[in-house]
Amino acid sequence: MADWVLEVLRNAPLVSASAWLLLAALQVYRDRWHTWTETFFLFCCTFAGIYAIGDWLFFNADSDYWAGLYARVSLTGITLAVNFFLLFTLVYVDRMKRRYWILMLITGGVLLLVLTTGIADVNAPDNADQLYVPSFNEIPFIAYLGYIVVYAVAGIRNLGRLAQIVRKSSETLARRANGLRRTFTLVLVLGLATNGYLGLTGNSTIPPPLSTLFIFVAGSAYYTLYPIGRERISEAVRRFQARRYSIKAVFMTYKDGTLIGARVRPGETAIDQDLFGATLDVIQNFMRTSFPILRGKSLSSITHGSYTLVVEQSRYGYLTVVLEGEESDQLRRQMRDLLLAFEAQNRQVLERWRGIPAEAFGTENVLSAFFAETPLT
After folding, report:
1. Per-residue pLDDT averaged across 215-227, rounded?
2. Does residue 377 fall inside a structural domain?
3. Least C-beta-crowded within 10 Å: which of 8, 26, 201, 267?
C-alpha cells in the first residue's frame, strides 16, 4: 500500500471524531442536555468521538504499552456509544423507565469483561507500513460482539419505530428518519464485516474502517435532528406522545412566587392562581431548607394520584404544567424553549420585576401554546 494512502487511513478517524464531538458541543451550545433524551444523545456523540480518537491513537501507536492502552480506550468508546445510542432511541420514541437502567448494568459487565480478559496481547508490526494488531480471547470477544450487535440492532429497530411515528405528521420527516436508520445499518454491516475480516485474518496493513465510517452516521444524525427548515422530528414526536397526557392548566411564576400568568383548560375546575404560585414557592423553599443536598436544585415534578405537576425553571422564574397522564421529554423541551424565549423577550422587565403581570409581553402566547394542538392519532 502506498505510504500516502496508509497515512490518510491512519488519520481519517480524526475527521469522524471531530464530527461527533461537534455534535456534542452543539447539544451543549443549544442548551440540549436537560432531559434524558438529550443527555443520552450527548453521551452517545461524546463516546462515539472518543471511540474514533482511540482508533486514531491506536493506528499511530509506537509501543506495545500504548497500543494496548489505546485499544482499550477504543473499546470503551464504542461500547458506551452503542449503549447510549440504544437508550437515546428508547426514550426518544417512548419515555424513560426504571428498567432501562438494567441495560446500563449489562453494559458495565460487558465492558469490565472485555477490558480485563478480552485482549490477550497486542502484536507489534514488522515494519513502518504495518499496524499493531490486538489479539482477543475467543469467549469474551464473542460475548462482546454479541452485545454490540444486539444493542445496535435494537437501536436501529427503534429508529424504524420513529419513522412510523413521524410519518403520521410528515412524509418528509419519515424519509429523514428512515435515512438515518439505513445509514446506521449500512455502516454497522460494512464496519463489522471489514473490522471482523481484518481481525480474523490478522491483517496489519489496513486500518479497520468502522470508526471512520461513523462519520456518515454523524452527518445523517445532524441532517435528521437539525434540518434546515421548519419541520422538526422532535415536534412530531411530541405531538404523538401528547396522546398519553391531558394538560389541565399551565402557570408561569416569577422566582419570588409572584404569578405572571395562568391558563386553565375550559371545563376544568378553577384554581386559585395566586395561592397556587405561593404554595409552589413554599414547597420549593421547604425542600431546599430541609435537604441541604438539594440546594441549588429546583423542583422537577410533583405527582398526586393521576395528576402530575411538571416544572421547568430558568433564570427568572419557572413554568408549571398540570397534567393527567405521563409526561414526556419532548413536553419538557417545549416548556423550556418557550420559557427561555419568553425571558429573552422580557429580559428588561424581569430584571426589574415589580410584580405587575401586565408589564410582561407574550405571556398569553406561551400559555396558549400548550392547548393549541390536537394530538396525532
Report:
1. 83
2. no
3. 267
pLDDT surpassing 60 at residue 212:
yes
The tens digit of pLDDT for each residue in 316-370 reads 988 999 999 988 899 999 999 999 999 999 999 999 998 888 899 999 999 999 9
To which residue does cell 438515518 refer? 180
* DSSP secondary structure, 337-359, as one string: HHHHHHHHHTHHHHHT--S-GGG
Q: Are residues 43 and 95 in the same domain?
A: yes
302 contacts 322 by C-beta, under 8 angstroms: no
**Could you tell me which residues are beta bridge partners of residue 313?**
318
Domain containing residue 32: CATH number: 1.20.1070.10
Q: Specify whether 85 is located in the same domain as 190.
A: yes
Q: Under a CB-based contact definition with an 8 Å cutoff, are residues 121 and 61 in contact?
A: no
Q: Greatest CA separation found in the chain?
A: 80
Contact 213, 190 (CB under 8 A): yes
Provide Rg for the chain, Cα atoms. Answer: 25
Taking residue 135's Cβ as centre, other Cβ atoms within 10 Å add up to: 12
DSSP 3-state of 123: strand
Mean pLDDT, all residues of the chain: 85
- Tell me the pairing of strands 307-313 and 317-325: antiparallel
Tell me: pLDDT of 11 over 70. Answer: yes
pLDDT of residue 301: 80
Q: Are residues 225 and 248 in the same domain?
A: no
Pick from 274, 328, 278, 341: which is nearest to 301 by CA?
Answer: 328
Residue 61: give the domain boundaries. Answer: 3-231
Of 327, 167, 316, residue with least CA distance to 247 = 327
For the cut 90, the answer to whether the pLDDT of residue 38 exceeds it is yes
Question: How many structural domains are present in the chain?
Answer: 2
